[in-house]
Specification:
By secondary structure, the chain is an alpha/beta fold. The protein has 10 helices and 10 strands. The strands form 2 sheets. Strands 5-4-3-2-1-10-7-6 form an 8-stranded parallel beta sheet. Strands 8-9 form a two-stranded antiparallel ribbon. The chain is globular.
Amino acid sequence: MVFGVAGVPTHYKGKLSGLFPWLSEMGLNGLEIQCTYGFKISEDNQSIYKAQRENGFYLSIHAPYYINLGSLNNQVVGRSKSNMKEGIELAKKIGANRIIFHPGGGHENTEQGRKTAISQIIDAVNEFTAEIDMGDVRLYPEIGGKTASLGSLDEIIEICKKCKYCYPCIDIAHLHAREIGSITSKEILKEKLQKIKDQIPDKFQHIHFHAYTIEYGPKGEIKHLYFGKNMSNGEEGRPNLSDFIAVLKEMNIDPWVISEALDSQELGAKYMSDLYNAKN
């Protein structure tokens, strides 16, 4: 069971080494390291992360946003494959066994264009994972938040079906946004997770979640919301996090949940952890 935060919360003001006891005091035991500008972590910070992992803290890494295995530009795909191999080596050094990445974009947003891009991603992942010792590292393609982005639920399932080392990262807020407000009840969310379980049962128990509320529009994601806030038009903040936790319990999922609530990720993570651990 892992509940944690994406990056260093804005409410934390100390050194990196002090972050972990600060999170632990809230009952949290996970950190998703944000490698937004590249798989670059100083030697000192690598040592800190490694020590915390050895102490039982769980680490995942979010790959840089510029990685684009679905690009129409072969040079971009080539660089992305090299970048991912660098990330895998970094993950092994610090004991992080999950790398989350976005499938990418630049494709033609048509049914055939998307199919071609997903097939290209599958080929690219299978190529670079065959060229490197993966160790315990697994790759997690993430649901995309915008309607035009690669990374629908079906596309994530397809990648995970055909790539040995890929497991699903289900960002329930992105899923809600890209489907223009689809997750309006516990039952709907449960149906979507059951679909994953039915199609990739061997990978389902290793699922990775991002959970928070989100603002969306006709093209999908607009912005992450601060924990507990509603959309600017007054619509209730969704997906409902208490419903999410209830579904995890009902489906007997041993969760790895990362909060990406805007400037309040530790508040969202603590809320979900407390709910999950509450005695019925």
